[in-house]
Amino acid sequence: MRVYLVIVDESDEARVALRFATRRAIKTSGQVHILALIPPQPFSAFGGIQATIEEEARARAETIAAAAASSVLSQAGHMPVIAVASGDPVKVVRDYLAQHSEVAALVLGASASGGQGPLIGHFTGAGLGALSCPLFIVPGGMAEAEIDRLS
């Protein structure tokens, strides 16, 4: 079974990547893995405040992952695998890939305008040769019909 790993957040780039991965999974009888990243939180000297900030960030990431999973379920008819992790995004993705050898492709969405994000920057640069699977980059400006046609 082909497994497509998608990194999700609230961006349009994540939505196009998720759509592409879901459509590929449908056409290849594959599965989608969703990884929601918890961005590093600014340090607060007060422990209670720090814990609250981190808890809110985790809850937000879990909500984003659940919404993405709902989208996959409605399109593909089955639930994806969901993971939520905190830390440096590049390291988290590399660790996830190392622990999940079944992943057949990492699917990332590119920004429709502006610069590249840290994951695309890393995995198309110095980190490309270390990837254990192919990398699909979906242009952020693609319409759903175009994504469906190409996937």
Mind explaining what this structure looks like?
The protein has 151 residues and is α/β, with parallel strands linked by helices. The protein has a single domain, classed as Rossmann fold (3-Layer(aba) Sandwich), CATH 3.40.50. It contains five helices and five strands, in the order E-H-E-H-E-H-E-H-E-H. It has helices at 12-28, 47-76, 89-99, 118-123, 144-150, and strands at 3-8, 31-38, 81-86, 103-110, 135-139. A five-stranded parallel beta sheet has the order 3-2-1-4-5, with helices on both faces. Helix 1 (12-28) runs parallel beside helix 5. It is globular, with a radius of gyration of 16 Å.
Number of helices: 5
Largest sheet: 5 strands, parallel
Q: Which stretches are low in confidence, meaning pLDDT under 50 for 5 or more residues running? A: none
Distance from N terminus to C terminus (CA atoms, Å) equals 17 Å
Beta-strand fraction estimate: 15-25%
Order of helices and strands: EHEHEHEHEH
- CATH superfamily grouping: HUPs
